[in-house]
Amino acid sequence: FNYGNWETMRFLLSNARWWMDEYKFDGYRFDGVTSMMYHHHGLQYAFTGNYEEYFGMNTDVDAVVYLMLANNLLHDVFPNCVTVGEDVSGMPAFCRPWTEGGVGFDYRLQMAIADKWIEVLKKCNDYEWNMGNIVHTLTNRRYAEKCVGYAESHDQALVGDKTIAFRLMDQEMYDGMSTLKPASPVIERGIAMHKVIRAVTMALGGEAWLTFMGNEFGHPEWIDFPREGNNWSHWYCRRQWSLAEQDHLRYHHLGGFDRALMELDDRFQFLASPHQWVTHIDEKEQVLVAERGPLVWVFNFSPHKTYEGYRVAAREGGKWRVALDSDAYHFGGKGRVSWDADHFTVPGKFHDRDQSMMVMAPSRSVVAYYRTEDFPAQAAAQDREREARDRAWREAQEKANKDKHTDSQFDPRKGGKAVPKRK
């Protein structure tokens, strides 16, 4: 387009409004914005962050002005409209209002993150993952400009590419996802790392979170629309949602963990929080500790090492509890973390914080902690769950003691049924 042409500008802006008016969209994702903003279209060009790359003769000023006008129009006419720009150049003020001289987008897509995960999974074994490099990619964004973080999108789900789940588990996904038999080492690793990758990306990768239909529970197949190359087949033009609904399949565990991540943000609002601080990176131990919002996140990428009594920094003193545990049984884990244990801080400088606490960091896991004093309702709910569990256990024990004089013995592991004594 010739963005300096008056009629071209009117055509594009009127279209932007018409689609919002007619179809009641929530907003727009502007695709390939980098190719619009520069005369070289971003092709074969490596941006280094030098401001001359953004504010020089290579910049298509007319295109940038059009984007400013489009964002101004949409937000003025539709105050709740959300605009997201797909920009890989890192244009300064891309996500600042036009009144500040910005382009006016609400969010920028953090496209480098998905590429980083592909690179790591393709080129590195589990012992070679560079924690510092991963953290740099996740947190490399401009201050006060909101970004959408994602581990993968439609690009990885389409035919010709592979999703994270498929890169982790490959062909074993087709016959190794049943919970009725023990998980193979490949499946066990894939389930664990799929959760860790998505959690660390959501925790550190931006101010919003993006997934793609089916990727959240590790959908085993790609998407391929009918075309001449596949003889116009509709076979892969689908999503098998039922996989995540079957209790006997491990897709159910991945879907449940993704749901828990969404509920975690609902409760603690960590994505909307400006506070993000990485307190500890250990390349040898493959451990990463970070603060996001009110939560302390402990990531252990190590394939085999579980750290008991691992000391982590805390922003404030008090009592901390588990808010999310990827190693929980109902997420397909090994249940190595006590979800209702209390972790008390001790004073003293540690990793630039005045408080620290001891936690369990299982291999290939993520555990998020919250301070009970900040969220008394959440703590009270956990107390009630603990009391209910203890009450059920006591009742089971009492019933077992009463049944001792009969020819049957009570076994609470059998659903509370009487089991004949063995001779």
Number of domains: 2
Looking across the biggest beta sheet, what order are the strands in? 6-7-8-14-10-11
Residue stretches low in confidence (pLDDT < 50, at least 5 long) are 410-419
Given this structure, which CATH class of the largest domain is correct? Alpha Beta
Say what the CATH topology of the largest domain is.
TIM Barrel
Outline the biggest β-sheet: 6 strands, antiparallel
Gross morphology is globular
- Would you identify the CATH H-level superfamily of the largest domain? Glycosidases
Query: In total, how many beta strands?
Result: 16
Secondary-structure element order, N to C:
HEHHEEHHEHHHEHEEEEEEEEEHEE
Structural class: alpha/beta
Q: Report the end-to-end length measured between terminal Cα atoms.
A: 87 Å
Residue-averaged pLDDT, rounded? 93
Could you say what the CATH architecture of the largest domain is?
Answer: Alpha-Beta Barrel
Helix content: 25-40%
Please state roughly what percent of the residues sit in beta strands, choosing from under 5%, 5-15%, 15-25%, 25-35%, 35-45% or over 45%. Answer: 15-25%
**Count of helices?**
10
Radius of gyration: 26 Å
Organism: Chlamydomonas leiostraca
InterPro entries: A-amylase/branching_C, GH, Glyco_hydro_b
Pfam family, one: Alpha-amylase_C
Protein name: Alpha-amylase/branching enzyme C-terminal all beta domain-containing protein
What's this, in brief?
GO terms for molecular function: 1,4-alpha-glucan branching enzyme activity; cation binding. With 423 residues, this protein is of the alpha/beta class. It is built from ten helices and 16 strands.
